Give the backbone structure.
Amino acid sequence: MSSNVITVSVGQTDAKPWVDELHQWLTTVDHKRLGILYVVSALMFLLIGGVEALVIRVQLMHSHNNFVSPEVFNRMFTMHGTTMIFFVAMPVLFGLANYLIPLMIGARDMAFPRLNAFSFWLSFFGALLLYFSFLGGSGLYGAGNAPDVGWWSYAPLGARAFSPGHSSDYWTLSLLVSGFGSIGTAINIIATILCLRCPGMKLNRMPLFAWLNLVMAGMVLIAITPLSAAQIMLLIDRYLGGHFFDTQAGGSAVLWMHFFWIFGHPEVYVLIIPCFAFMSEIIPVFSRKPIFGYPVMVAATVCIAFVSMSVWAHHMFTIGMNSYANSFFTLTTMAVGVPTGIKIFNWIGTMWGGRIQFKTPMLFSIGFLFQFLIAGLTGIMMAASPFDWQLSLSYFVVAHFHYVIVGGILFALFAAFYYWYPKMTGRMLSEGLGKWHFWLFLIGFHLTFDVMHVPGILGMPRRIYTYEPSRGWDTLNFIISVGAFIQALAILVFVANLIVSYFKGDKAGNDPWDAWTLEWSISSPPAPYNFAMVPTVASRRPLWDEKHPEDPDSRYE
Amino acid sequence: MTRKSEVKNGKKEIFGRRTKSVLSRGWQIVLLPFWSTTPLCAVGPDGTPNNGTNIFSPASTPAKSIADLSIFVLVITGIIFVVVFALLFYSVVKFRGRAIDAGSEPAQVYGSTQIELAWTIIPTLIVVVLFLATARVIHAVQDAPEPSDAVEVTVIGHQYWWEFRYPKLGIVTANELHIPVSNPSHPTPTFVQLLSADTDHSFWVPELAGKTDLIPNHPNRMWVDPQRTGVFLGQCAQYCGTQHAKMLLRISVDGPEEFASWVCAQQKPGFQDAGAVAGRRVFERNACMNCHAVGGTSADGRFGPDLTHLMSRTTIAAGAAENTRDNLRLWIQNPSAIKPSSLMPSMKLSDTDLDAVVSYMETLH
């Protein structure tokens, strides 16, 4: 089948009417094109989710503000959360995994190219389904549009009695559909990594990127299934007279919480582990040293995956579990900090003794390390369940998980964009705009999310559309909102950079960063078949061996 | 016999802790930014000083145990931050690439088992210490035995207001909880049962205790033993629907005499003023009485707050507005003006009926 693809696109790339071009993009089963589709759709939803965040921040700028109604505000935070997790973070990470894994392991495509396309379109149409609720959510009842029950839709708020109309149904179906897409992608990633590695690439010679995505894919299989099950049960409750979560008829609200968080907490690691993967590729290259403690990094990742499956109820410390359950989940949650800490130490160990080059990808990586450290430490605070009885459901939590998702995941993603954009497009992103992007975003981020911890400590709950002037939260919220606009500006600089550099960026060449993994051995962008000759590797850094034949890695491994 | 006295001693220790300032002066300075923004002397609508909503100024044993643990955790995590940040900062500055090194590569180091072991074992020990400190507080707060003379309150969360029932005292009220101050030498803690009539809510008064959720079909329990009087503020912390934001909480911690007289006043049957009979008729002729109860009349609805002693409360609409004649009138005429999407409907009363029913409300002492 790959020979087919070769003849079609190599010959005709230049003079093609746009209809043909579009047709090729829509019907493609090429992992690189699908990867780019994932990334572009995720960037689009990043902008939409960002606008929703700005609406939230304008409304909270001062007490008793009337910028939007409570209904609109509630829709905004529900859509913001759902969009950012399911239709930005997951697709963009899947997209990069899709694009890069075959290139890094010397394969010509993913194991199941058609499943790959199917998974992408499921997740994309899932997103469209969610946004269609703005139009179709009122249904027959005229009861508002777009879901407004929060991104975890706690029972019984998601039941028909409290969420009439169809907005919750769109939410449910959207997560169900895109969840199946995620499961398809996870199967594909696992099969690709286990079956399609090039000759010589034993498991312990895989780039950490492949290892970490393998672990992530395994977690997706375990985490998404309970979410899908719960969504089906919710649909049964809403339409087939079920009572799983219908508290009015003896159902259990707590059951929903367990289902949701046994998905929801591993999900955090599903998102952060691919970012660890970016860091584990980028930091060594810009420190000019191999990753410190490769086997320990793999072991720590697997350890995180296992332990993180047993921490979910730390999202539920306030629901009145008994003291033994609270102690258990305190212990497991704190324990997950150990392997995570090991990773941070290993990245610092990689930089130690290196010759660090402060290119934009490395700047974002250092930002990631700093912010992820803080995010981990505030996580330890909330793992102490009594402390969490105060902090949970407050703005402190909002600050904490944005520290993880923006300060950690998004910073790592920006690093990945600056690092691999040349491979994807053949052009370098502008370093000048990149530095503007980095510093603006860094300032905006810290202005918003450092300050956001404080109103939580001062008793401000999350998800309130307004607050009383006498509480002393006004100034803090104003600063937080200003920071949000600075971040928005930085994102615009980033988008401008993506577009301008696509046309006017410096030519990248095969290997602009003098890097060591296989994707840098082929042209930028790679040919549809990736490798004209399937490579053979003898170490974890095949290109290092090639560039330093006098002192190859293969001698030490 | 011995066992019983042991329990009693344990109880005494739990409830008897003194709440002097939790923090040493040094920590107060370090943490100053956190509460410099709190209004120091916010004054409530009725002129009583309000306490803030700062989790680091606890006024009750559960909140104080939590604040103490929090400081401990903050110190440990603070030390970790300083150490790791120093390492990161040092490596970024010290190992930055220099022009002179261009073209050559640094020594390629692959790892070190000793170092890996060190940064596995040390964090593990830290986790053990943190866990033990935490487990102790979990047990002390959650498993505290209820003394027989504790005040018992049942809190029922509704979209978007609080119902308070005192089963032992036969009192039903809403939105403003009165509880007695607890003297460390003779503790009178309040034990709270938490229920919900509809969606999930969460009861959070930061200076008295951590939050506990109110979940339908899942009764919860918590306790407080406030050690200073005054009004304590809080609000619903679990998103419960459109008007979640204005589901505010006021807890009035009264001295023993004030509490006794408040109980006495609340236990009286509804006051019937012959002058307000027109308003009462409006109230009973319209749907008001389907949702609201007024003791001693045929109005016994339970969907909305009990109005028998409405005038003893300082706020209306779950703390969204002060309890004044103008606000009452506006609230009855157009609830959305004060609290959009509240479940109280506008009854479209004529001006005459509106004035009459407001006057009736004003007689409900």
Q: What stands out?
A: Chain A has one domain: 2-555. The two ends of chain A are 36 Å apart (CA to CA). The mean pLDDT of chain A is 94.
